[in-house]
Design a protein that fits this description.
- 4 copies of one chain form a homotetramer.
- By secondary structure, chain A is mainly α.
- Chain A has 2 domains: 13-63, Arc Repressor Mutant, subunit A (Orthogonal Bundle), CATH 1.10.10; 66-212, Tetracycline Repressor, domain 2 (Orthogonal Bundle), CATH 1.10.357.10.
- Chain A has 9 helices and no strands.
- Chains A and B meet through helix 1, helix 7, helix 8 and helix 9 of A and helix 1, helix 7, helix 8 and helix 9 of B.
- Chain B binds a DNA duplex through residues 11-15, 21, 23, 44-46, 54-58, 60-62, 65-66.
Chain lengths: 219, 219, 219, 219
DNA sequence: TATGAATGAGAGTTCATTCAT
DNA sequence: CATGAATGAACTCTCATTCAT
């Protein structure tokens, strides 16, 4: 009986520099959707395979195990977000304008790809330690650091108050976005199925709240 | 003949009508801890029973099933928080002072009972729909509304900017708190095991950020 | 400590020589009903206790365990049947008349106490070996023997064909009754809720079929 | 290029489109045996899997749950019986001969496959309502109807007494067979392990009893 | 007698993972 | 690459039985 591979010349099963097998992609996309819909633990391999229209076992051909799959989902989504944040940071505009862009960007993405955002935002810290210990935590931290960097630069230029801790400020800003999104998802804000205009209005509100603060006068 | 006592002639210290059985309480407490440590799906009945020091089956004596148990946990924790928020709202102080108190209160509780806070904050929206559809969503919404009410009153007294939407503002405030807590839990803020002083500092930072906003000058 | 009851002149709860405690009786009655409704394995102690209106533990006060309880139910029901069969046997009438009475008796009882009959007839051989090994098998066999005795006597008087094996004949007769009852219970015979008249008609049919046989002419 | 096969050169014994997977069959067979040995409620999935020599989970690969498995067992066995009855009915012979064949057939099958018969005969009406409501009740009724049809035809040809109700007669006949089998199973008839000859003798006895009736003379 | 809280073994079901084809 | 049958550990839930009061 011929063994699997006479010489193992690696005919091609390797991710072949850059070009990713189409089915791998399908699985990843499916995972995002299922993940978003059912959460980390509710997301079963069978669901992902069915959603992707591939055979059960193929998932294990491309991913070591469930954790690696979901870790990949996280990583990919975060990478997209990080790239966007980085683009904003290295782009034009004052720090305050950049931070406003961050708010708008996330809520904008939600409008077009709510699943991805849910995965990104709502599932952080929900995954098991194994995940958190992995790249996810790092990328999450990276996002906070990136935003805190914008804050720090704003402090240098005098746009942002010096007394604020950039990291805490970044956390507050991202947290404000997150819970606004949660409110949206749960239907507490914006109603059961918010219109695009409504979401735009919420964007403006979040920006105003976070940048300007609640108080009408400075103490 | 001396009757045992004025009203309650219960010969044996029976589960004292109306008062909650001690073991039920133990199970609930254990559930909070396990829940916080492992999340909704990672939380197994066996863990809860062991943690509570009771037999497996007893959990099912007091609770219909896993969902009802965890729903109870949610309900209890939220009730505690809601009561505290309500106490703050109906207490003394200006609206801004009250909102500052809210920030401080949650972070304070975290210092003394991090598990409860994790359950409360980190698990919202993570539970299955059955839970979200239940009392949890309502109480979550209640919390947002309570805070938004404080905001609204602050707008009436002129302390808080009129252009802000109270609900969005409340969501931002609670979100800022939440992600700061998440940062604490993950060790991104305050280091691996933050001192009480460090947490106090973070409290001040969050209050300053949220109430005063990021911008050093108003547009 | 004051004892339970200053006077407590034993109003009656004592087993009072020979007289069976009222609650024991209630449990037994309840067991018959539950047993009939749910079958041996579907019958839970909790159901019996609730149906009897007594506390859980009391069942174990009067009966060693579930098997003993259900064995008691069997024994009691069979005893009633055996006594009736014996009364018929030692009573007046030819053998054929007696056997007709047996048919009528069982179907009659069904009319007034279908539960008891179901337990008696439908549950034989369904119970675990432990039960079958016990008195149930013996009483079941006793019933067959009793009927076969009537058959034997009929053969002696020439009423019944000599070529028949009394035991097989008895089994056939009881079997005919049983499946007719099953048909009644399942609604295949007599419709969903048969009238008394309908049951009477079935009685006559069974008697005619069993005693006279199917064939219109003897070979 | 050699086409797949002349008839059966299947390189891999794949589940052969359309044909039933071999292991599914093994599970079904095992279920019959375990079912017969322990009854509906005593029959555990683990037993079936072990008996079939397959892994626990495979049972759930082929069957939704325990009820569906046992329903399948019922359905299959009844189908076999129904087919046999139908074959007898549409075959040659007078009605009386056909009915005699029915008696002989069932007792014959018992000789070669006692398990299947036990399942078929002894477990009817013992299963939970869910089962009874399903195909089982219908097929049971179908069997009674099939036999009653033979009776009716016998009445038309004058072989069978006109005064008998075909349905009741059919029930009596099948009941006679059933309780004779029960007697066999319990060792009340034919002794602990009856020889084939003994069973043949019982067959004759049952036929004689049912067809000819008990009475030696017609009233 | 009587109660019902407490126990824990056992059974059904799910699902990540492996493997032969 | 691709498939999906096969495996079995893990988990939820049930219920007979015990026991302190």
């Amino acid at each position: 009986m011929p063994h699997r591979n006479s010489r193992r010349t690696n005919p091609r099963p390797r991710p072949e520099e850059g070009s990713e097998p189409e089915k791998r992609r399908a699985i990843l996309h499916a995972a995002v959707r299922v993940f978003a819909a059912k959460g980390y633990h509710g997301c079963r391999i069978a669901d992902v395979a069915r959603q992707a229209g591939v055979a059960y076992g193929l998932v294990y051909h491309y991913f070591q195990n469930k954790d690696e799959l979901l870790e990949s989902v996280f990583a990919e989504q975060w990478t997209i977000l990080l790239n966007a944040l980085e683009a904003i940071r290295s782009g034009p505009g004052t720090s305050l304008e950049q931070l406003a862009s961050v708010c708008r960007f996330v809520l904008d993405v939600f409008r077009t790809a709510p699943d991805a955002v849910r995965v990104l935002i709502l599932e952080v810290a929900r995954a098991p330690d194994s995940l958190r210990a992995g790249s996810t935590r790092q990328t999450f931290e990276a996002a906070v650091r990136l935003v805190s960097e914008m804050v720090r630069r704003g402090q240098e230029t005098g746009e942002i108050r010096h007394e604020l801790d950039p990291m805490v400020t970044a956390a507050c800003l991202l947290g404000a976005i997150e819970l606004t999104l949660t409110g949206l998802v749960l239907g507490i804000l914006g109603g059961p199925s918010p219109s695009e205009q409504e979401i735009e209005r919420l964007e403006g509100q979040v920006v105003a709240t976070v940048l300007g603060g609640l108080a009408s006068t400075r103490r």
